[in-house]
């Protein structure tokens, strides 16, 4: 009997992702841009195809069989998302196009209607542009004042400074759970507790946490939480807003039209129940159903297991990058088990521009991100024009990290010839 190499869990998982078998520039794809968007397993791709092939129909409208089936699948996916983040009711989950739209929903529906001149909004210097620009709109329209939290010497959220900024003027705190650039995991539960003591509401941007660790909105006690499907193995064009029921109940609709109404007259209308009040027009039906399939997929593997495996990869990534003297990684260091930060590394390599790094690595089949990662204020704060970023997922392997690090070393060596 020949000894077959034993299949590991990650081998089995990788077989679900057809794209991982693709070649790029003649080399096996090494996809390390998961913080920009994740890849999709067959289970998700198939659920989208099944919808279009077998029961494509509009939701909440037809009395016919296909519409009933589509409605059940669409609403069933909402139940899965609610359970996934431990919402207390399915009515607390509103489908949106993405996290950006979810933040804008809160900005237009809640903040525009509740903030007065002099009221304060606190976010942090590490926020994604999607969690900054909507607050610019709100400040311009309402006269609210924007305050921001900076970084500790470890390049993490400065909780002490946050405490100093908080006051009874604070009406809203909007912060990222896990930074897409620094990789730090912010103390969101404590942030919610402190903000609530001042009577402020809290929005958590969970784009980079929901795909990688268990997230529990009731334990966190946030008022709203947003995430994008495409970063959690689901298609693009679907995301969600979680909001506490009593708060969503008080908020006026964001967009008007079909699907969100109870009754319409020529001069006024009454609105539907939650969550439909916030879902105007025909939604992204297949995408929502596929989001449900993605949640099933992640849940079957287990968010605890995903987090633990990614921590192992993080420890290895930092160990290997640590051997390259030119590399400066931003954000906190992981502990010996790879815990304490996200499975990503945004870095610079001496004088080499990040775009040159990613272009050269592409020749090796390695996909990493370069640029400002939609965190321009953070890059300005760190006084760097750009970083390169490798971001991992549960389907990545140590062997892929080896390919990446080897390609990176060769690229740095090549440039050292003329950059010194
Ligand atoms: C990706 C991302 C967003 C924006 O997500 P969209 O899908 O583009 O709406 C917001 N915040 C963080 C931390 C992100 O990583």
From TrEMBL:
InterPro entries linked: Aminotrans_V_dom, Cys_dSase_SufS, Cysteine_dSase, PyrdxlP-dep_Trfase, PyrdxlP-dep_Trfase_major, PyrdxlP-dep_Trfase_small
Domain Aminotransferase class V residue range list: 30-404
Cofactors, names only: pyridoxal 5'-phosphate
Entry's EC annotation: 2.8.1.7
GO molecular function, one term: cysteine desulfurase activity
UniProt keyword annotation of Kinase present: no
Reaction(s) catalysed (UniProt annotation): (sulfur carrier)-H + L-cysteine = (sulfur carrier)-SH + L-alanine
GO biological process: cysteine metabolic process
SUPFAM superfamilies in UniProt: PLP-dependent transferases
Superkingdom, taxonomy of origin: Bacteria
Assigned protein family: Belongs to the class-V pyridoxal-phosphate-dependent aminotransferase family. Csd subfamily.
Record-given protein name: cysteine desulfurase
Organism phylogeny: Bacteria, Bacillati, Cyanobacteriota, Cyanophyceae, Nostocales
